[in-house]
Amino acid sequence: MNFVRITLGDIAHTRSGDKGANSNIGVIAYNPEGYRILERYLTAEKVNEFFNPLSLRRVKRYLLPNLGAVNFVLEGALGLGGTCSLRYDAEGKALGQAILKLSLLVPCDQLPNCLRLK
């Protein structure tokens, strides 16, 4: 089986924000094929590894199939919370953009049609 490395930005867009000391990232697929990739390959462990420099306490993943999205809660991403955080991005808005660079190794036959043409 042949595999190809893609980034989340190839198949999805994001929304992010904060609740206290936690950051929230919604990853929304552009199409149903993209959602199937998110569901199968975008795990809480991968997200935790990607954001390793933030020393997160835990990453929780929630599947939202009716929206074609996956939601992640990054516990402890903002230190003591948005208003007390010394991080440059105290509200976690940039984390949604950053995660679009996360790469996934995906079987070629599972790629959305738009990526198969590249």
Extract low-pLDDT stretches. none
* Category from helices, strands and their pairing: alpha+beta
Main sheet: strand order: 2-3-5-4
Number of domains: 1
End-to-end CA span: 18 Å
Strand content: 25-35%
Helix amount: 25-40%
Radius of gyration: 15 Å
Instruction: Give the CA-based shape.
Output: globular
Task: Please characterize this protein's 3D structure.
This protein has 118 residues and is α+β, with helices and mostly antiparallel strands. It has one domain (3-109). The chain has helices at 8-11, 32-41, 44-50, 93-98, 113-116, and strands spanning 3-7, 12-19, 22-29, 58-64, 69-75, 103-107. Strands 2-3-5-4 form a four-stranded antiparallel β-sheet. Strands 1-6 form a two-stranded antiparallel sheet.
Blueprint of the fold:
Layout: E1 3-7, H1 8-11, E2 12-19, E3 22-29, H2 32-41, H3 44-50, E4 58-64, E5 69-75, H4 93-98, E6 103-107, H5 113-116
Antiparallel strand pairs: 1-6, 2-3, 3-5, 4-5
Provide tags for this entry:
single chain; four-stranded antiparallel beta sheet; 118 residues; alpha+beta
The gist of it:
The protein is an alpha+beta fold. The protein contains five helices and six strands; from the N terminus they run βαββααββαβα. The strands form two sheets. A four-stranded antiparallel sheet has the order 2-3-5-4.
